[in-house]
Amino acid sequence: MNSISKKTIITAAVITFVIALASCIKDVDDVNLPNTPQKLVVQSFISPSDSIFVTVFASQPLNYNIPVNDYSWGSVFDTIKTATVSITNITNLISVNVPYFPEQKKYVLPPNAFTIEKGSEYELTVTANNFESVTARTVVPLGNATSVIERIDTISIDEWGNMDMRVIGSIDDPANEKNYYSILTYGIKEYTWDDMSNIYISNFSSSLMSDNQQDGNSISVRHEFYDYEDEYTEIKYTKTEVYEVDEHYYNFHSSLETIYDIMDNPFTESSHLYSNIEGGLGVFGSYVTINSTTLNK
What we know:
Layout: H1 3-23, E1 40-46, E2 52-58, H2 73-76, E3 84-89, E4 94-97, E5 100-101, E6 106-109, E7 121-127, E8 134-139, E9 146-157, E10 162-172, E11 180-193, E12 196-210, E13 218-228, E14 233-245, H3 247-262, E15 281-295
Parallel strand pairs: 1-15
Antiparallel strand pairs: 1-2, 2-6, 3-4, 3-7, 5-6, 7-8, 9-10, 10-13, 11-12, 11-14, 14-15
């Protein structure tokens, strides 16, 4: 059998499979979906070096039919502005309410208003009218790991200025601890047009790793990302931040990456977004910055 015949058979088989698959798809009328109530959705990641930010909104169950168009989409997932949000240090039982800031559409508390301590456990509680109260806990990482970012290598660059880049560095993992890490990289650029310029952040990328089978060792960091430069855009510098994160931060972002990876594959089993919010949905986690390095391009 020659190669042309083989290609013809393969093509015919693929076409037959697609037709058969399409014939199995039918519209079903009057489906009685279970009555699923709305839940509070909460997201917050706390750190000793940053303000506390908490986002609160309501879930949209499958049977919660709201007409959505180009003008109403944003309001469907708008934040809940009247919730009561509190955070408690479980060790000393000191608690404080987190106020809502309309400009940011979040509940915000500056670092000097409530101290986040490494190694301490915190509980987040959110209540709102017509919703079940939700809670979640996180233990802030100890931050004993250290990290060094050595350089940025250019893997490839094309004629249009598109570049594949790689951050090179390492993490010294402390022994006898279960640790998780997150590496974030972003570029600071300047765009110039008609004698006017604008500085902005672009090409934000991240990656996750753990010390599984590498406990107490030096863990290699090889974080690849994309960037570009043209006649109007100049890369001023690139910044890399390395975080030691708790298991909730790690599990949530890992599940998010999985969902992104399978989003366009109709033959893959569904993957659920990780949540540690009791009584609701979302994530409450923590992180400690162990490295912040600015590198020239």
